[in-house]
């Protein structure tokens, strides 16, 4: 199968940045060893909307006035929709950069992340940032600004138990958007999870980020009989996911086999695949969301093309009345140091609740 790595978008971004005389971010480097591996997940934070609020308030107390001005914006600020998964050398981002935090502030940030994500979600962030550290010594790292300190946090609205607010954290291959209402997590849509490389070792720690999501989709596809596979199989691998950053209004055409045409065991495999994404957020909303999705499962479509192996061209989409999940595996890498080690883009959308319906 042909390689589908979308180098054209990257090349266009680079050309635009270089034509302007400078890349989007040219901040001083810090030693990636100071960030990676990130601190272990702190389960004592008891992730929830209320815990997110308290941890955000504690983090804000460590900041200077100037830093608070950078990190806090209106919940309806247009910047909230201008997130990206592209490298920092191509795209400017809103919010406070991790590389501009001191040790105490970083500690409070990771406490916040433990309060705001499920353990699985936290580990996926850890894997994406470790992949960035791996790429930081690549021959393209300087111009693309591949570095684990190049991730940004922004608060939209004021973290408080009596107010609606949201947080956004992202950088290369990462874009998390979670909304808190009435001190509960309301949505994590839209959110992007990706990595390059996918399976690697850094500082003695082995990472296998996103690959389990790929394998979950394959497990479902492999469980289909011949007729079901014919209904589920797409004709080609897309060049990139269609519902990612900048495409909030995109709803792909439905394709593949429906949940109504699956056996009960196959339906459970479909739900298990969906939960790989939904479970990134705290249980208080993940459990509610899974109940919602299960109720519409007969109308949820599953479409697949490709192989199960990392570093192969493969894609699947799960789509229902309120849900879109896309998973794309590339057989090519941008970084020469990551050649053959996998490259993933994935997207989660709640079509009825992007950004908590608080943006304008």
From TrEMBL:
Signal peptide segment: 1-24
Record carries keyword Lyase: no
This protein's record includes keyword Magnesium: no
Stored InterPro entries: DUF3500
Pfam families: DUF3500
Domain of life: Bacteria
Keywords carried by this UniProt record: Signal
PANTHER family documented for this protein: DUF3500 DOMAIN-CONTAINING PROTEIN
Record-given protein name: DUF3500 domain-containing protein
Organism: Ruegeria haliotis
């Amino acid at each position: 199968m042909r390689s589908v790595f979308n180098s054209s978008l990257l090349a266009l971004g680079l050309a635009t940045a270089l034509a302007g005389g400078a890349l989007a971010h040219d901040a001083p480097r810090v030693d990636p060893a100071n960030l990676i591996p990130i601190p272990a997940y702190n389960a004592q934070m008891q992730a929830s909307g209320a815990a997110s609020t308290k941890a955000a308030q504690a983090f804000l107390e460590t900041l200077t006035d100037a830093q608070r001005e950078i990190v806090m914006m209106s919940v309806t600020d247009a910047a909230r929709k201008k997130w990206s998964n592209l490298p920092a050398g191509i795209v400017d981002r809103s919010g406070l950069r991790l590389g501009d935090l001191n040790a105490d502030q970083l500690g409070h940030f990771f406490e916040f992340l433990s309060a705001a994500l499920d353990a699985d979600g936290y580990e996926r962030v850890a894997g994406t940032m470790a992949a960035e550290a791996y790429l930081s010594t690549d021959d393209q790292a300087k111009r693309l600004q591949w570095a684990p300190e190049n991730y940004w946090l922004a608060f939209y609205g004021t973290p408080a138990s009596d107010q609606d607010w949201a947080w956004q954290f992202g950088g290369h291959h990462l874009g998390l958007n979670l909304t808190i209402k009435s001190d509960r997590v309301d949505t994590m849509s839209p959110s992007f999870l990706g990595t390059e490389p996918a399976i690697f070792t850094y500082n003695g720690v082995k990472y296998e980020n996103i690959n389990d999501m790929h394998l979950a989709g394959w497990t479902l596809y492999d469980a289909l009989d011949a007729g079901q596979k014919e209904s589920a199989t797409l004709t080609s691998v897309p060049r990139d996911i269609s519902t990612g950053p900048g495409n909030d209004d995109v709803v792909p055409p439905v394709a593949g086999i429906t949940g109504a045409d699956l056996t009960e065991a196959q339906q459970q495999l479909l739900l298990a695949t969906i939960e790989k994404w939904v479970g990134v957020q705290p249980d208080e909303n993940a459990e509610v969301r899974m109940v919602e999705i299960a109720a519409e499962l007969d109308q949820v479509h599953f479409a697949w093309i490709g192989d199960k192996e990392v570093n192969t061209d493969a894609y699947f989409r799960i789509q229902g009345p309120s849900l879109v999940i896309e998973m794309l595996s590339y057989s090519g890498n941008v970084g020469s140091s990551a050649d053959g080690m996998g490259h993933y883009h994935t997207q989660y959308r709640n079509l009825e609740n992007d950004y908590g319906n608080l943006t304008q």
